[in-house]
What does this fold into?
Amino acid sequence: MIRYIFTRIGYMIITLFIIILLSFLLMKALPGSPFNDERLPEAQKELLYKKYGLDKPVPIQFGIYLANFVQGDLGVSFVFDNRPVTKIIQERIGASAILGFQAVTVGTLIGLLLGIIAALRHNTIIDYGATVLAVLGISIPSFVFAGFLQYWIGVKLGWLPIAFWNGFEYSILPTIALAVGVVATIARFTRIEMLEVLNQEYILTAKSKGLSNPYIITKHGIRNALIPIITIIGPLTVNTITGSLVIEKIFSIPGLGEQFVNSIITNDYQLIMGTTIFYAVLFVSVILIIDILYGFIDPRIRVTGGE
Amino acid sequence: MTTKITEDATLKKYPPDLFEPTSQHEFIDDFTYRPEQSFWQDAWLGLRKNKAAIVGLCIIILVILLAIFGPFMNSHGYDEQNIARTNLPPKVPVLENISFLGLNGVDSRGVDQYKAKGISEYFWFGTDELGRDLWTRIWQGTRISLYIAFLAATIDLIIGVAYGAVSAFYGGRTDHIMQRIIEVLVGIPGLIVNILLILILKPGIISITIAMVIVGWISMARIVRAQILKLKSYEFVLASRTLGASNQRLIWKHLIPNTLGPIIVATTFTIPGAIFTEALLSFIGLGLQPPTASLGTIVNDSYKLLRIYPHGMIFSSIVISLIMISFNLLGDGLRDAFDPKTRK
It folds into this structure.
């Protein structure tokens, strides 16, 4: 098990290194420099280059960037008056975290419920309804949902605010828009897992022992069906963060996603790079944690070390 | 030893002239069999039972036909601007008489824009803020979105199948090295690589396709490798090898045909994924540059007008959602059709 964890961490570090290298090379591949102002005299430019370490050869610059990254320094934004990228991320992460957390928890709970009910009422109208909902939720892009939520609930009915971030009611519509995909994915997966588990022979054994139906479903059914669901939390988190880029932009939420999209539009490369690396670290660690968690829960991996 | 003796004894009991030679034909006739089904017939039979998948397939065919012929169905060009007819609501002959459909050229304020602007033509999906015909633009955009999606899916398929097949078939060190590479790449979040690459390459059909392929082939390679690894250990492959089949024959006659099902299913799911990614990239400002339009850029443009002129957003998002839904339905149906476990 320990060997398994160390291998996973090893891969994580290599993956991160490649992402950082890729983003760094991108910065170098782009034309121009941060000090393109024509009024700057040559001597001053050289001083500036020296100050920011841009006069050194590229590999050494990369080394410095890596060293700074390890210490949690991602450089400064060119557009926002030299403000440190780490500081900007810190200010912006709050709204995104709340939004993402709400969407994932609400979505997972509703999805589980829907999936379990659909499986228990297999081949009835409830099951078909849940399946149709799941296909719609997976297929229809989140920005389409967001647009129509804004139009009907926000503008036509005027029930909820459609933009900005001044309290809980501002987070309802964006949370729904983000959660739809989560609900659909979880519901679909739970339904399949539940159906599979309910067909197992140990369920029959439990029934013949005379256990009550609710007991069998909660203690034997749901518990075993939930284990594989852990594996989709990783991709789900990635999808939610990806979705939040657009949702935050649509609802003008001052989160990290909105900041990232804006930095792309304003070509603030240092900020793009910092946010990219931040997202990468987040993704890779979520996947790592889930892999390890799954290793602890699933005896097949726990015993063989994932070979 | 005892068996040997009895055998000899039996042989002596039945001298050779009592035996009658037979031909292979008579043996084969002993079997009952049904007409042989090709891979495609088999899949089609499975798919036909799934109504949702057939509906999906019909919608896909309809959308593809409209994407090909739609732009020619009226006389407007996709980049033909006209300030005199901006933001017209949709108006369709015949259907304009059914008021609740909203296809009578009356906008959200209840004004008949066609009368107000003195326009006698019909714009089936209305026009955008530059007076361009949305019917033509949306189908033109669908064409480009589908083109990007199919191109990306095809390249994913070629790279993925080759990589996965080589890795699984040769095994050993080759497989080990190739899998380590995949394990590193699979951790890289796709969208981030897409964004970084498009920043370097500048938005365009080819650069968007390349950006999607860079990480897209990995899942295909994993599927193919897993499938071939499993098949390799089956007895029928061993039997074929024992009969002297060459590597070439094993790969083309046994391994690839049996992997075809999962490959087709994966490709069917790649296409809606690619359309979604393209639309998402357009939404964050990394889409195609005007006047070229894809579904994503049209949704993005019409989103800005949603509150006053919702028709553009409604039509473009219906088209993009229909494509996504029908490919997902077809993919689900194909997965069941190819899966021997679900066959009765």
Observations:
- DSSP finds 13 helices and no strands in chain B.
